[in-house]
Design goal:
There is one protein chain. By secondary structure, this protein is an alpha+beta fold. It contains 16 helices and twelve strands. The strands form four sheets. The chain has a four-stranded mixed sheet with strand order 2-3-8-5, with helices on both faces. A three-stranded antiparallel sheet has the order 1-6-7, covered by helices on one side. A three-stranded antiparallel sheet has the order 4-12-9. α7 runs antiparallel to α12 and α12 packs across α14. The two termini are 39 Å apart.
Length: 469
């Protein structure tokens, strides 16, 4: 294509009208507050927690899009926005002006006060700088061969003609990968070892986390430093093997030459020259394990769930992979579209410390502002026919920085984004090449919420029709 020739417009990518946003420097400007949903706080909290997508879409339509306010469990009435200009203003703001809300999320009592996920300010930046190298560049390339081997072994276990849930099968793959990267464990750990007990505890907790008791506990954890009783029992189950793994590695001295994340953290010292405490190590390790495998696994599960209910897209990707005709581009487009239409993390937030403009509205200082990834990704003006999985939406077209945000953005962008995309590419390509899948039920699976994630209710149930060599 010559320099003067422009690519034809993508009919599945639109343009959003601009909407000014950012710190409201001119105090003389008088803008109204966003409309407030007229429902009792408890009702809104339950509806948001159980059916977040339906709840937010309803009020987004009622108020004409972009911004409205709800009564929630966190301090203040959160403003909900889904405009990319508003997202840009929050992602590019100085950290002191718009710190993350993760420290107030139900995750805080689970991952602890030392976690990079919930840390703010200088502490967050120090921890982020420390943990970034193992998730980028050559480190990720070293994982690719292992991801491929683990995926092939997993596919070989699938039985032709039988229904099974894809989500837990994807979790088995991503858990092996994250256990290798964090603990240096190649393959499955030996039965009876602390690493084996930790892997088993993670699987149990993930399975139990969608129960009604767990969901109520999550709500009660919001704004707390210590978990409530139901969550505390699960954390105790997880903490015992985690601390055992730390003690075992510290005592062995093997961490001095290890390249895994635990070894690296054991070699790390604080600003005072002291080694990190076991509790600090525990917080970082559990954050990486819990956040690093389940989100990637459910992203894959959602992409297959959506594609299998859009047979033309599934067949197009399958044919591209098996013919090697632009297969990498098609796989990438499928992953991006899957994460657009069903983002596993559906909402993220900041608490603005100064008055903030959000288009035609403004909110005062100390207001939580939540960016609904789900509403943003399903904007009709940005993504025409937004609820349909369209592979061509991202063929030859990269998503916009503030229009496609499944990994968040700015200085809080997910540390493991590069690894997560690499995992999805390898797994997607292998599954499409090796097996033929169908959905046993043409109806879409409903989204259910587990802590801060959105997952397919039936685990992305599929049937394998055939297996290829």
């Amino acid at each position: 294509m010559s320099a003067t020739t422009q690519a034809p417009p993508n009919p599945w990518i639109g343009q959003v009208p601009p909407s000014p946003a950012g710190p409201l420097e001119d105090q003389d400007v008088r803008l109204p507050a966003p409309p407030l949903i007229p429902r009792p706080r408890l009702m809104q909290t339950l509806q948001f927690s159980l059916r977040q997508g339906d709840f937010l879409r309803r009020w987004d339509r009622a108020y004409g899009g972009d911004v409205f306010t709800l009564r929630g469990m966190i301090r203040g009435n959160p403003a909900i926005t889904s405009h990319p200009d508003h997202v840009r203003s929050l992602f590019t703001a100085q950290p002191a002006l718009a710190p993350s809300l993760t420290g107030e999320s139900p995750l805080r009592p689970i991952v602890g006060p030392n976690s990079t996920l919930t840390a703010l300010g200088d502490h967050h930046m120090r921890q982020r700088k420390l943990l970034l190298p193992p998730f980028h560049g050559d480190a990720v390339e070293r994982y690719v061969a292992m991801i491929s081997d683990v995926t092939e072994r997993e596919i070989n276990r699938w039985q032709t003609g039988r229904e099974f849930q894809l989500a837990p099968r994807m979790q088995a793959i991503t858990l092996d990968v994250i256990m290798s990267g964090i603990f240096g464990i190649e393959g499955r750990p030996a039965p009876g070892s602390p690493e084996y007990a930790l892997r088993a505890a993670i699987k149990v907790l993930v399975r139990l986390s969608t129960t009604p008791v767990a969901q109520v506990s999550e709500l009660l954890n919001i704004g707390r430093d210590e978990p409530v009783a139901g969550t505390r029992a699960g954390i105790t189950l997880l903490d015992k093997p985690t601390y055992a793994v730390i003690r075992k590695r510290r005592a062995s001295g093997a961490y001095e030459s290890g390249s895994d994340i635990l070894s690296m953290l054991l070699r790390t010292t604080t600003e005072d020259g002291e080694p990190l405490t076991d509790s600090h190590l525990r917080d970082e390790l559990l954050t990486l394990v819990l956040a690093g495998h389940e989100t990637t696994a459910n992203s894959l599960a959602w992409t297959f769930e959506r594609m299998l209910r859009t047979p033309a897209a599934y067949e197009r990707l399958r044919d591209a992979v098996r013919s090697d005709e632009d297969s990498a581009e098609h796989v990438e487009a499928a992953i991006i579209e899957g994460m657009r239409i069903r983002p596993v993390i559906p909402i993220i937030g900041r608490r603005v410390t100064v008055p903030w403009r959000l288009g035609r509205y403004a909110v005062p200082a100390d207001t939580p502002v939540a960016m609904s990834i789900l509403l943003l990704h399903q904007r009709e003006d940005l993504y025409p026919d937004p609820h349909t999985f369209r592979l061509e939406r991202f063929l030859g077209h990269k998503p916009g920085t503030y229009e496609w945000i499944p990994f968040g953005g700015g200085i809080r962008r997910c540390l493991g984004a590069t690894l997560a995309m690499a995992e999805q590419r390898v797994v997607m390509e292998a599954v499409m090449r090796r097996v033929d899948l169908v959905a046993p039920d043409p109806r879409p699976e409903r989204a259910v919420h587990r802590n801060v994630t959105m997952i397919p209710k039936e685990g992305a149930t599929v049937v394998m029709r055939a297996r290829r060599p």
